[in-house]
Design goal:
Helix content is 40%, strand content 7%. By secondary structure, it is mainly alpha-helical. It has a two-stranded antiparallel ribbon with strand order 1-2. β1 and β2 (76-79) form a beta hairpin. α2 packs across α3 (49-62).
Length: 126
């Protein structure tokens, strides 16, 4: 499966790219996406998947540790979240799940009879 080409990744990064760097970025991006949605990832990929894969692939080469900020004095390093390394952002995960047809959110199903639901009212101060 080809999620993005080396030329597309070169254009996104704006710099030269070796075949090894492309393979690393592509394979890591595919692994991360498959880790989230499994076999729902189509070949060719569904609309919307390619842009997510390219963003992940670019991060593999530019910020593999997920560093948000660094400071030389005192050696302070902060990361984008509790995880280190390349991962999907919550927005990318939501978009990926929507692209492959997974429900991206919680739902509720009422299986009780309509008249068995408890009655309640909302209290509001006078």
């Amino acid at each position: 499966m080809i999620l993005f080409t080396a030329d597309e990744l070169r254009a996104l990064l704006g710099r030269p790219l070796t075949d090894t760097q492309y393979a690393l970025a592509h394979d890591t991006a595919e692994d991360i996406l498959r880790g989230e949605v499994g076999d729902r990832l189509g070949d060719p990929p569904q609309p919307g998947v390619r842009s997510i894969a390219m963003a992940v692939g670019a991060r593999v080469l530019t910020n593999p540790a997920g560093v948000r900020s660094e400071q030389a004095g005192g050696m302070i390093v902060s990361y984008a979240d509790a995880q280190t390394g390349v991962a999907l952002s919550s927005d990318e995960l939501r978009r990926l799940k929507r692209a492959v047809g997974l429900v991206a959110g919680a739902g509720m199903v009422d299986i009780g009879q309509a008249d068995s639901a408890p009655r309640f009212s909302v209290w509001r101060p006078s």
